[in-house]
Amino acid sequence: MIRLHALSRIAPAALAFAVSLALAQAAPPPPREPPPLPPDLEPLPQIPPPPEIAADPDLEPQVTISRREGEVVEEARVGGKIAWIKVTPRHGKAYYLVPDGGANTYIRRDSLDSGLKVPMWVIFTF
User: In CATH terms, is domain 62-109 a member of 2.170.150.70?
Assistant: First the structure.
């Protein structure tokens, strides 16, 4: 009985040691240097970074979010003019109000999708 009891304590430790050896990984080899270029070829010049573009604050949309009587109204303005208004009622589906080209009238849409569908026909397959 004593031997079986001692073996039951040693076996898990030996198994854990064997698993840790199996999972141990060797260090990755150091990176190799690229081969030298032939004498008739020159290295490519370094590409300069792209120029920084200063953002025009007048072109960035300004979004105002307000909560009224159980609904959330998001209003986006570009250059001081309303681009769209998104109304999310407490119960129901959100909808958008897009300004009409004329006076202060708005067109209600279920999404900001323009509705333009490009035809896509299969002409040839092989």
Answer: no
